[in-house]
Amino acid sequence: MDRRVVITGLGMVTPLGIGVQKNWESVCAGVSGITEITKFDPSPYSCQIAGEVKDFRPEDFLDKQKIRRFDVFIHYAMAAARMAMEDSGLKVSSSNSHRVGCLTGSGLGGLTMLEHFHRILLEKGPRRVSPFFIPGMIANMAPGQIAIEFGAKGPNLSIETACAASCHAVGESFRYIHEGIADAMITGGSEVVVTPLALAGFCSMRALSTRNDAPQSASRPFDMDRDGFVMGEGAGILILEEMELALERGANIYAEVVGYGLSGDAYHVSAPDPEGEGAIHCMAMAIERAGLQPEDIDYINAHGTSTKLNDASETKAIKTLFGEHASKLAVSSTKSMTGHLLGGAGGVEAIYMALTIENGIIPPTTNYDTPDPECDLDYVPNVARKRKVNVAMSNSFGFGGTNASLVLKKFNP
User: Fold this and answer.
1) Residue 303 catalytic?
2) What stretches of 151-242 show up as alpha helix (H) in DSSP?
């Protein structure tokens, strides 16, 4: 059973703001959400900057009991889901509840709560650890709580594939609707790991930028002087629906999901395959399943983390797959402004891709000052570009060599 799948609702919580409008205005203006870390004292760390969410009021989206009992990554996921559901106008009732599912991605789940209760255990003993600790931090509680909130009784899963998690989540949700397993899915991802332990781990790997004196210019994908990624946090949730049902209820349609690819590098625990073989296969699968050719792609929202290895590998993969068309592609990394939301990145970037198609504006790669001979594509440097985009692709690649690609298309009934 092959059914068409469309995007009807969007919700965002990111370092650029709360809500889709604020995010879109900021990313098109090239605004950075990266600042010095305020959640804890970062002075002992080699990296002291991150894309923290600012001005988030959980009480605007959740009742006090849920705020206390659940990790912040669940707060963000539920807030973004509420915004997406309101945007979509989708109503879950007894007649359709088993056909509406929820599938989200997260790389590490409730690390904030884990670190908090570990301190409680060490300082005050096991009896002081809350009975809500485990259900409050496990990754699948994000789709679990979203489903409870809206009464969605269809497929309910969480995906934990590192930085590809929420791209995989959107892709799998697309498959469920496409194949007739569900009629609508609440999907995307959430991540909140700007914590002492996570920062220490990434610093030890020497994966993060140490441009502490200039936070807003620290994330510089594809630039010669890039020196590592910058952690970000937040959530991006989308509502996917079967096209006919969406049209019947008069839903606004942002774009159509037409392709999804996934692959593994089978190469290294954290480094990408330098030849980009897994990324090539992943992108090619997404394009083939969409019934398209590489030259049909107008824009790629790149994984573009601002690390030496990833940016060069992704560039090589794009050039290999697209051949001569690679030079005609617009390729940009919105991580230059949001930082890297890890397991939440794919959901946020799928939203930016849908808005690019709807509005005909391609977000820039900011902080692109010095070209790198190994990275020689059109990265939409520093200034957003007005351009009609019919078909766009988004890439997300994660530790362990796990890859995901999505293809969206301008909706034409």
Assistant:
1) yes
2) 165-178, 196-204
Q: Exposure of 44 by Cβ count < 10 A (0-12 exposed, 13-18 middle, 19+ buried)?
A: exposed
Q: How far apart are CA 374 and CA 401, in angstroms?
A: 21
pLDDT-derived band at 2, boundaries 50, 70, 90:
confident
Residues 211-224: tens digit of each pLDDT:
999 999 999 999 99
Contact, 384 vs 29, CB < 8 A? yes
Distances in Å between the Cα of 167 and the Cα atoms of 30, 170, 185 are 23, 5, 14
Residue with tokens 């509680």: 141
pLDDT digits (tens, 9 = 90+) for 305-341: 999 999 999 999 999 999 999 999 999 999 999 999 9
Q: Which contiguous run of DSSP H or E holds residue 158? A: strand 156-159
pTM of the full structure: 0.97
Is residue 340 part of the annotated active site? The answer reads yes
Label the pairing between strands 402-409 and 391-398: antiparallel
Span 145-166, average pLDDT? 98
Domains of the chain from N-terminus onward: 1-401 (3.40.47.10)
Torsion, CA 35, CA 39, CA 40, CA 45, rounded to 10:
-40
Catalytic residue among 47, 163, 167, 282: 163
